[in-house]
Design brief:
heterodimer, A: eight-stranded mixed β-sheet, globular, B: alpha/beta, Rossmann fold, five-stranded parallel β-sheet, about 10% strand, binds iron/sulfur cluster
């Protein structure tokens, strides 16, 4: 069947080992594979070579401020949820050189930093994460000023999405309508069943890759199992957030006493913003040689939790943790809508798991609403 | 030395001096460790006094003075005042010079008792009761943190003085650097105690990358919430005494860490 090419929108099924031929096809098309792999104590996203690098038979157990790796009692290939990394690291790198400025005969020259954009294939993009990429597309590519580096990386990227059948304890994509089924917007969308992968073809490039793979049309039973698993997943979310009264709820509660309570716990360490797949704030730093002859402008991830970030001429506009936490949450769940036409949270739960003291955005919203 | 004559063509090179007090020399070595950049430094400034690097010792005044080490003897207390008088910019480098160093642990105890236990002839020891940062004695124009300092940050400070701009040294948490370098948080994945969320960045989050919790050697970050982190460490199973000792490390005498360590010590008592 290898000569045949499935249509866009078709559901096909493949043996699990055939994922290797998808990887091979991607590499032949010049892609660098980035996917989940076992890192130091967590499943991270990094360059992978093939199926051997995937965390097969592993899972994660997450709660507020805890993440632990565990062996599964099966050989599931995608039997875990999202970890400390997100795809933003590859589309919007944490440290990015922008330009070099040189002093020359009483004047100066500006040389933009240009590099061949990497051609990434993202393996295992979850529903919440795909939506996060779409949100960052609006941030970096919407409006009259586009980020050229993000644009170049994004346009080349291939997305192999994975539907979640076992949500984690800090996941709440169902509340945010971003998962557990991924899409639209992928090249290939994979659902793992016990013996096979069911794959939905999402793009022309997805079709092309599938043409080199041994596939068959998905059977009725496989499709039904897939749907059942996804419905089940939707019902077993670890967390839930009521978004029915957002953004108004937050605008009406800017002086709620809860902000003081959360400020007592919050370390303003910025971990939540670093792990969040939609947070996009950065700082541009100047790195000069000793005489200031050659100066590099470097963009680095920054955060609304840092004091220097909100220092403007004349003073700091958010001097207290209370105002910084409120800024972050109100941006995510209210003013983001005014700014980008969408909420800024996709329900991935990373900020809950990776907050060193376990502050939980779903719990904070409930408290602001006065339900605790 | 007459061999210096040929260099007189650039009379306006700023004079740099490096002095040391109670310390281990590690911070000065960061400057020597800057290798290539050190040659540029030597080209851009006149190294007037730097005992670790060269024998020549020129007298003051100096344009830029780097001071390593804490003040812990009466003689050092006199010297630092004289150095201040001789220096246009005085920069304290390292945890000793900015917070009193690990030797500031004695500030919580009776020094005379230590002296009697440790030295065969205690009468020869002339020391102060406390080890304190340079800023307790003289005005300091800039403090560069760390044990040891980071050579890139040191070069940044020297550069900014030479070209007349503010040094860009972050005051936020170590966690931001930890996340930029993609280390999965060891407090979340293993329950390892880490002072990263209350410690100032600058080191590049080295310790968590090698599976060790941050020891807080860069001192307290801007507005650190030492109480909340301490309470969380208790939920991870640490005793209040351990938390007190954790805060009382290389920069333990820096105000925010000192107060936190005292508070958790009180809880223990
Ligand atoms: S939030 Fe939803 S889509 Fe994201 S990892 Fe969890 S279950 Fe999957
Ligand atoms: S909410 Fe948690 S992760 Fe975010 S800044 Fe506060 S303590 Fe850090
Ligand atoms: S705010 Fe938290 S749950 Fe929402 S997208 Fe960001 S990290 Fe995920
Ligand atoms: S390991 Fe330490 S420094 Fe790194 S993110 Fe966790 S708490 Fe912060």
């Amino acid at each position: 069947m290898t000569e045949l090419t499935p249509d866009i929108g078709a559901y096909v099924s493949i043996d699990k080992e055939a994922l290797e031929s998808i990887f091979r096809g991607l590499k032949q098309e010049g892609y660098t594979l980035i996917g989940p792999t076992l890192g130091e104590g967590a499943i991270v996203y990094d360059e992978i070579d093939g199926m051997d690098d995937l965390p097969i038979g592993w899972t994660d157990r997450q709660e507020a401020a805890t993440y632990r790796l565990h062996r599964r009692d099966d050989q599931a290939v995608f039997g875990y949820v999202v970890g400390p990394h997100s795809w933003k690291r590859f589309l919007f790198p944490p440290v990015q050189k922008l330009m070099t400025i040189r002093k020359q005969n009483g004047s100066f020259s500006v040389e933009p930093h240009v590099e061949e954009p990497p051609r990434y294939a993202f393996i295992g993009v979850r529903g919440c994460e795909l939506q996060a990429i779409h949100i960052q597309d609006r941030v970096f590519l919407g409006g009259p000023y586009q980020d050229p580096d993000y644009k170049a990386r994004r346009q080349l990227a291939f997305v192999l999405a994975v539907n979640c059948t076992e949500p984690g304890a800090t996941c709440f994509c169902a509340s945010m309508d971003t998962g557990p089924k991924a899409g639209p917007g992928f090249d290939l969308g994979l659902t793992e069943l016990d013996d096979v992968f069911v794959i939905e073809v999402g793009s022309e490039m997805g079709r092309r890759i599938m043409s080199g793979v041994r596939w068959r049309p998905a059977g009725a039973f496989e499709l039904q199992t897939m749907r059942e698993r996804l419905t089940q997943a939707e019902k077993s979310m670890g967390r839930h957030m009521d978004i029915s009264d957002l953004p108004a709820l937050l605008y009406q509660n800017l002086e709620h006493p809860r902000w003081d309570q959360v400020a007592e716990r919050c370390l303003s360490c910025a971990n939540c913003t670093m792990v969040c797949p939609t947070c996009f704030c950065s700082d541009v730093q100047e790195v000069s040689d000793l005489l200031g002859e050659t100066n590099e402008r470097v963009r680095v991830w920054d955060s609304c939790f840092s004091l220097q970030f909100s220092h403007v001429h004349g003073g700091n506009i958010r001097p207290h943790v209370r105002s910084r936490y409120r800024q972050w949450m109100t941006h995510k769940l209210a003013s983001w809508v005014d700014q980008f036409g969408t909420l800024g949270c996709v329900g991935c739960g990373r900020c809950i798991t990776w907050c060193p003291v376990g502050i939980d955005i779903t719990e904070e919203i409930t408290a602001i609403r006065g339900e605790v | 030395m007459s061999t210096q004559k040929t260099k007189r063509a650039e009379p306006s090179k700023p004079k740099l001096a490096v002095f040391k007090f109670a310390s281990c020399d590690g911070c000065q070595l960061s400057l020597l460790d800057a290798e290539e950049a050190l040659l540029d430094v030597a080209g851009a400034v006149e190294i007037a006094y730097f005992v670790e690097a060269r024998d020549r010792r020129l007298s003051g005044p100096y344009d830029v003075t780097l001071v390593e080490g804490s003040i812990s003897t009466p003689e050092q207390a006199r010297e630092i005042r004289e150095i201040r008088r001789q220096s246009k910019y005085l920069i304290a480098i390292g945890a000793c010079a900015t917070a009193g160093g690990i030797q500031a642990l004695r500030n919580w105890r009776d020094v005379d008792e230590f002296i009697n236990i440790v030295y065969a002839h205690p009468q020869y020891i002339d020391t102060l009761a406390t080890s304190v940062p340079i800023s307790d004695y003289v005005q300091v124009d800039f403090e560069l943190r760390g044990c040891p300092i980071n050579k890139h940050q040191l070069l940044e400070v020297i550069t900014s003085l030479l070209i007349g701009r503010q040094p860009r040294t972050p005051t936020h948490s170590v966690c931001i650097e930890c996340k930029r370098r993609a280390t999965p948080c060891i407090m979340v994945t293993q329950g390892t105690a880490c002072l990263g969320p209350v410690t100032q960045a600058g080191c590049g989050a080295i310790c968590p990358a090698y599976n060790r919790g941050c020891y807080g050697c860069y001192g307290p970050m801007e507005a650190p919430n030492t109480e909340s982190l301490g309470l969380h460490l208790q939920t991870l199973g640490m005793g209040a005494d351990e938390i007190s000792r954790l805060y009382r490390g290389f920069s333990g005498y820096a105000e925010a860490f000192r107060l936190a360590s005292d508070r958790f010590e009180e809880v223990t008592a």
